[in-house]
Design goal:
By secondary structure, the chain is mainly α. It has a single domain, classed as CDP-alcohol phosphotransferase transmembrane (TM) domain (Four Helix Bundle (Hemerythrin (Met), subunit A)), CATH 1.20.120. It contains seven helices and two strands, in the order ββααααααα. It has a two-stranded antiparallel sheet. It starts with a strand and ends with a helix. 23% of the residues are buried. The N terminus is likely disordered.
Length: 208
Amino acid sequence: MINGGLALPDGPDPRRVSHTPPTLAGAGLFTLPNLITLGRLCAVPTAIWLMLQHRLDLAFLVFIGAGISDALDGWIARAWNARSQLGAVLDPVADKALLVSVYVTLAAIGVLPDWIAILVVFRDLLIVGGVLVLWAVGLPPRIKPIFISKANTAAQILLAAFVLLLAGFGFSAPLLLEVMIWVVAATTFASGAAYVMQAARRTAGGTS
């Protein structure tokens, strides 16, 4: 290689290597986005304890803080190219752990109907079970969020935040709350059914 009239040895320029952004696999375990995600995971027992102590006002603040941290770690991972395989797995696990824990605890203390918490948990167990079954039969699923699933997640987050806000700060909106509960129920059922249909097509395609 000729650079400025001087012959340089072949191979990577060390100046360029030092500025190469990390890849998804090589970003490391203890990146800032991963640490933020771990913090959000630690918010799960905190939120549960606060709800069991009927401090739903503080639980609401913890829940909102977790939502902000979710957006923050995603932005940092993209902007700093600090994505990692651990983060790709840990982020949805932390989100789902917090959301399911909030629904189950709110139902346990009588703030949400039992049936909506059961439906939310059953939908997630159905999806996880389906993924494990497909892996077991040698048909690893192509995990790709669909629109109804994204809509369901948004509806579940809004309902959880709304319930914590109402119960924590003494507000009342029974009609709106009832509507939101049924929206969550409908989207939870629809997204679960959509994933079941996807799994059925995947199985049929893999065995044909």
